[in-house]
Amino acid sequence: MDLFKPDAGLLFWMLLSFVILFAVLRKYAWPGILKGISERNRHIEEALVSAQKAKEQLDRFQAESQEIISHAKEEQIKILQEGKKIKDSIIVEAKEQARAEAEKIIDEAHRFIEKQRQEAMKEIDGKIANLSVDVAEIILKKKLEDAEEQRVYARKLVSKISETV
């Protein structure tokens, strides 16, 4: 059990070596250690302040970016609305031009048809006049004694002529 009970001489030397070690450490080591600890605390505080400033800047940048994004979205909506208005006006204008062009084409077609009809009527009138002259010539050439026979013959000629027309 002597191992668990220290001797008085051993205690004295241990205490003396501890006091010497403590005095040396206090004189030479503690100032450097305390200086390092205080410098580290200062660096940590500076880092915390810098981090806080960086966080504030980041918050400010985020707010600015949100504002820029919202402004850009508003501009995009305005541009899209203006584009839609322009598109609608172009469509309306194109429809009006197409309608005017269609009316012009229809009017030209009506004029052409009317011209063709008038030419056809003139041609028909000319043919009828020629046929009438031919019929009259044929009737006059043929000497028929009976008036009833002349009428029957004239009707026959007219029906032949109408079949050819």
Short description:
The chain has about 160 residues and is mainly alpha-helical. The chain has two helices and no strands. The mean pLDDT is about 85.
**Helix and strand sequence:** HH
- Sheet of most strands: none
- Given helix and strand content, the structural type is mainly alpha
Number of strands: 0
How many distinct helices?
A: 2
> Approximately how much beta-strand content do the residues carry?
under 5%
Task: Quickly count the domains.
Answer: 1
Instruction: Provide the low-confidence segments as ranges.
Output: none
Query: For the CA atoms, what is the radius of gyration?
Result: 62 Å
Give the overall form. Answer: rod-shaped
Average pLDDT taken over every residue = 86
- For the record, give the distance between the C-alpha atoms at the N and C termini, rounded to a whole number: 156 Å
What does this structure look like?
The chain has helices at residues 8-141, 147-164. It is mainly alpha-helical and 165 residues long. The protein has one domain (8-164). The longest helix is centred in the middle third of the chain and has 134 residues, at 8-141. The chain starts with 7 loop residues before the first helix and ends with a helix. The relative contact order is 0.03. The model has no long low-confidence stretch (mean pLDDT 86).
